Amino acid sequence: MVLGAQRSSKPSDSFEQRGGGFIPFALSTFQLGKDGRKKYTNRYENIYREHLIMHLSNWGYRLSRWWLGIIFIYAGSIKLLEPKTFAVLIEAYGIVPDGLLMLVAVVLPALEVAAGVGLLFDIEGSLSMIAGLLVLFITILSYGIWIGLDVDCGCFGPEDPEAEAFHGLRQSLYRDLVMLAGIAFVYGWRQYRAIKTVKITTIIKKLFKKRRTEDAYV
């Protein structure tokens, strides 16, 4: 008597059971664990993990840009509202000639706003401008701490909440160093992902083209 083939309780060669479901055998590989036993590794898991890391890093890049841009826009706008008061704060550091105080009190915040707006829209050169401004601020704050200045930081205008004399300078310095680390991340991620920034000339050309198109229909 010929016995019928017994039905195997194991999955077929093309599929493996894991976690109550089946995964393609072709996408699975074997790895030896510390105990010498074979373990299954699903390639889907590695692909998903890499995709998740890239997705989170992309959002980290965007949030870092927006965070830095908003901070610089806010700081510059507050100081532009009261340039005379900001000029008095600059004078306290004793590094700018009296004849240039008002000019610096207006130009410096204007550069902060322009760089912040540029970084929000990923415009070419805005990240370098913010990095340069931060290096300048860090140098000035370090100088103030080094000579023991008991002055207002003035980083966020005349009513800076963290401007508590000498302690305020140190706190501002630490904050600027954190922002500098954020700039390093943004720059590094741009290089890694080969992200192209928007050129200001391209924006100007588009605006002129749009203007000409509108004039043609008038």
Sequence-ordered SSE layout with sheet pairings:
Blueprint: E1 15-18, E2 21-24, E3 28-32, E4 38-42, H1 43-81, H2 83-93, H3 101-120, H4 126-146, H5 165-193, H6 200-216
Antiparallel strand pairs: 1-2, 3-4
Description:
By secondary structure, the chain is mainly α. It has a domain at about 65-205. About 65% of the residues lie in helices and about 10% in strands. The protein is built from 6 helices and 4 strands, in the order ββββαααααα. It has helices spanning about 45-80, 85-95, 100-120, 125-145, 165-195, 200-215; strands at about 15-20, 20-25, 30, 40. A two-stranded antiparallel ribbon has the order 1-2. Helix 1 packs antiparallel against helix 3 (about 100-120) and helix 3 crosses helix 4 (about 125-145). The protein is flat.
Key phrases:
mainly alpha; 4 strands; two-stranded antiparallel sheet; 218 residues; single chain; 63% helix
| Contiguous runs where pLDDT drops below 50 for at least 5 residues | 1-28
Please list the strands of the largest sheet in the order they lie side by side. 1-2
Summarize the amount of helix as a percent range: 55-70%
Supply the number of helical segments: 6
Beta-strand percent range: 5-15%
How many beta-strand runs?
4
- How far from one another are the termini? 97 Å
Specify Rg, calculated over alpha carbons.
29 Å
What would you call the shape? Answer: flat
- Average pLDDT works out at 76
